[in-house]
Amino acid sequence: xxxxxxxxxxxxxxxxxxxxxxxxxxxxxxxxxxxxxxxxxxxxxxxxxxxxxxxxxxxxxxxxxxxxxxxxxxxxxxxxxxxxxxxxxxxxxxxxxxxxxxxxxxxxxxxxxxxxxxxxxxxxxxxxxxxxxxxxxxxxxxxxxxxxxxxxxxxxxxxx
Length: 160
Known about the structure:
The chain has helices spanning 14-23, 63-70, 110-122, 128-137, and strands at residues 26-32, 38-44, 46-48, 53-59, 73-79, 92-104, 142-158. It is of the alpha+beta class. It has a single domain (8-158), classed as Roll (Pnp Oxidase, Chain A). The chain has a seven-stranded antiparallel beta sheet with strand order 2-1-5-6-7-4-3, with helices on both faces.
């Protein structure tokens, strides 16, 4: 069902893909938007090691939620900061593409929402007092989405 990577020599391991998802704070979620136009939007994410799913937060209304409620198949692309080999001008970038199904986390799943919000927040700060304040103040205004991966590939690309 999913294509194999054409340039398989550039493919990185599943473990490297997961490391990138855990370390990098954001990527681009692509979905079908209004009138089935492609719609890609940068988002912060949290990768849950317990279940291998990706989680996102967003406003309770908007284009993104309308799109995923209409069509649950999405892709999510994340890439690292890259590196240069000694004496080389070209950047080497590792990227990961996750294909899967996304759902809006139900209002009844309050514990999961708190876990997602804390996971995303901890990617940016380690101030527990700030985190608790955010959970109290911002959590009621946020919606959350869960991406269940069906296929994932990653590769290392040299820009030269």
